[in-house]
Amino acid sequence: QGQLVESGGGSVHPGGSLRLSCAAADGTSGWWCMAWFRQAPGKEREGVGEIHGVRGDTNYADSVNGRFTISQDHAEKTLYLQMNTLKPEDTAMYYCAASTTCRGPWYVPSRYRFWGQGTQVTVSS
Questions:
Q1: E strand map for the chain
Q2: What is residue 1's predicted lDDT score, i.e. its pLDDT?
């Protein structure tokens, strides 16, 4: 229960765009508090942004604010991360995460019980 299926990663040039998707497994009801994280080799997993499943409020890391946009489709039970003006420093494995509650700081990984498998984003010339 609560399995997330993530897709949309790839390799792009600096300044390019990608759209990541994270879908809840069939049979999963409702919508949860969800977030996107990323992790580069040798670095800690860091929060990219989050969206409140009910209110739709969003928060973003300073490093991506203004370039990335989180959205959701309740009918499709899917979370999206639109990434524009990508930079080499955005290169990382990207993960979606979800919780049945929205408590505590959004950028703390332990807040989330369910995770996607990760999708690689590589930004290089």
A1: 4-7, 10-12, 18-24, 33-39, 46-51, 58-60, 68-73, 78-83, 92-99, 114-115, 119-123
A2: 47
* CA-based R_g, the chain, Å: 14
Phi, psi of 71 (to 5 degrees): -145, 170
Residue 42 backbone class (left: φ over 0; alpha: ψ -120 to 50; beta: rest):
left
Q: How far apart are CA 26 and CA 4, in angstroms?
A: 10
pLDDT in tens, 76-104: 889 999 999 999 999 999 999 998 888 89
Please give the Cα distance from 7 to 57 (Å, whole number): 23
- DSSP lists the bridge partners of residue 96 as 36
Amino acid, res. 5: V
Closest CA to 120 of 65, 39, 64: 39
Residue entry with tokens 């942004």: 49
